[in-house]
Design brief:
Blueprint lengths: L1 H10 L2 H10 L12 H8 L1 H8 L3 H9 L26 E3 L12 E3 L5 H13 L6 H8 L3 H10 L13 H5 L8
Antiparallel strand pairs: 1-2
Helix pairs in contact: 3-4, 7-8
Family: Belongs to the NDUFAF4 family.
Protein name: NADH dehydrogenase [ubiquinone] 1 alpha subcomplex assembly factor 4
Subunit structure: Binds calmodulin. Interacts with NDUFAF3.
Length: 179
C-alpha cells in the first residue's frame, strides 16, 4: 500500500519536470587552473632542452644495472586440472571397525577422522584404565598434548533412561466427580 502512494507522488507531473530540467541552460564550467609545470615548460625552451638531453653519467649507471629474472617453478597438473601437491603427506589407514562405510579410508598422520574421534572418546569413557591418553596417542599417531586436550574438552553424550512410573502410581489420584 505504501509503495503505491510513493509511486503516485514520484510520478506526479514527471513530464513537465523533465522538460523544465532539459530546457535550462547548462552551467558554465569553472575555469581550469594552469599548472606551474606546463607554464614553465611552455615559457622556457631551456627546460625542454634539459629534459630531452641525454646524460652520460646516468647512462653509465644504467649500464651497470643487471637484472636477472627467473620464472616460477612449473606446477604439474593431473588430468582433472587440479594441482598436484608438491610434497606428499604421510597417510595412515583409519581404524573404523563396524562404521567403515561412514567415513574416509585414509587420513594424514597427526589427524583423526570424525568416526575415529567418537570411537576413541567412547572407548576412553567406558574403559579409562585401558584406553589411556598414551595408548590413544600411539594407536592413532597423535601427539600426547593434543590427546589430553581432546579427552579434557570433548565428552561424548550419555543416554540416561529413567524408570517408568508404575501404573498404580499414575492412577492413584482419583478423578473428581462432578455433582
Amino acid at each position: 500500500m505504501g509503495g503505491r502512494v510513493t509511486r503516485v507522488f514520484r510520478n506526479f507531473n514527471v513530464e513537465n519536470r523533465a522538460s523544465r530540467e532539459i530546457s535550462k541552460e547548462k552551467p558554465t564550467p569553472a575555469p581550469r587552473h594552469r599548472t606551474a609545470r606546463l607554464d614553465a615548460m611552455a615559457d622556457s625552451p631551456e627546460i625542454k632542452e634539459e629534459v630531452l638531453r641525454k646524460d652520460d653519467r646516468f647512462l653509465t649507471l644504467l649500464k651497470d644495472v643487471y637484472v636477472e629474472s627467473t620464472d616460477p617453478p612449473v606446477r604439474v597438473k593431473n588430468r582433472d586440472g587440479e594441482h598436484l601437491p608438491s610434497k606428499q603427506k604421510e597417510k595412515r589407514l583409519t581404524k573404523l571397525g563396524h562404521l567403515e562405510a561412514l567415513d574416509v579410508k585414509k587420513v594424514s598422520k597427526g589427524k583423526i577422522s570424525l568416526v575415529e574421534a567418537l570411537t576413541l572418546l567412547n572407548n576412553h569413557k567406558l574403559q579409562p584404565q585401558i584406553w589411556t591418553a598414551e595408548k590413544i596417542a600411539a594407536e592413532y599417531s597423535l601427539e600426547l598434548k593434543e590427546v589430553n586436550s581432546l579427552l579434557e574438552f570433548f565428552i561424548p553424550f550419555t543416554v540416561h533412561e529413567f524408570r517408568k512410573e508404575t501404573k498404580k502410581a499414575i492412577t492413584s489420584r482419583k478423578p473428581k466427580m462432578l455433582t
